[in-house]
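dumping this here before i forget
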Amino acid sequence: MRGGTSKGACFLASDLPADPAARDALLLRIMGSPDERQIDGLGGAHPLTSKVAVVSASSDPRADVDYLFLQVAVERAEVSSRQNCGNILAGVGPFAVERGLVPAASGRTSVRIRMVNSGDLATATFPTPDGRVDYTGEAEISGVPGTAAPVLIEFPPGDSPLLPTGSARDVIDGVEVTCVDNGMPTVLIAASSLDVTGYETPRDLEEDLALADRLRGIRLKAGRLMGLGDVTDTTVPKLTLLAPPRHGGAVTTRTFIPVRCHPSIGVLGAASVAAGLRIEGGVGEGIARPPERSDQIRIEHPTGFLDLESTLGTTGDGPPFARRTAVVRTARKIFDGTVFPRPAATAPPPEPHPAHPHGGPR
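structure:
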């Protein structure tokens, strides 16, 4: 399925091995990793097209289904559960209805989803006329050609602190940053503080080796400050460079995952950026132009923009928290059938990876 600006394979948990090591070994064979072209599997030779959703009925009374996101590395024999994906999340509700985990309502169906990687919750609402998922519609999102049915995703306030370090600004390697977590651990950095404009193309930024070295150092230290431990072998926290908007939005962004520059921006990463821009004293002050009388924030990115609704709240003198976050995405079923993995004898075993620091699958 395509979910937002990502693409991945969706599975019922019951169709995969229960043992995580056996499951990961199978997924590597299915996606064609490790290989820079993923020529022998379903992967699309980029992190954004080498994703997996594992879906099952939820035992949590707050949710209808559980969604485990797995990032399959392209050039390494590695499958990671240490992050969420808000784009693939857009396809989870329709997939749950397609597979009979949730009955379709008349007109529109809402599916409550527990994101296993972090324990966070989301509700996806989408059209189901005549009791079937309808993927056609007029909603358009940047980075995806054509139009499709809108999928409204709403996130209730999470349990994790919005400011994991307790500060609106921290200094890492002489650079001021704001560390924020509104569903995705993210480090906000003024592009100018790293001697770039923030308007460069993703390719140009990826080819800047000096910038890559500085970002690598900042990310490792930010990971420890944010309570994530050693993030050397993970894709979180994300790093997002901020620059003044050019096309009427609130801010221009360039996001790294962790060294590849995102051609757009992830949903959960954008949710963290939007919340971070509203934090008094954050690095976004003087750069971003969030609307004063509207909850909607438009995040500009390399291929367009992403609109979110974001409001913060406070309790007395306590730290700010995310009161409401919502975004419209689209999703589409691309293929439904049987995949034939490459033979196990030709596939290297997956590299071990640590458990998710917030209590995800082990």
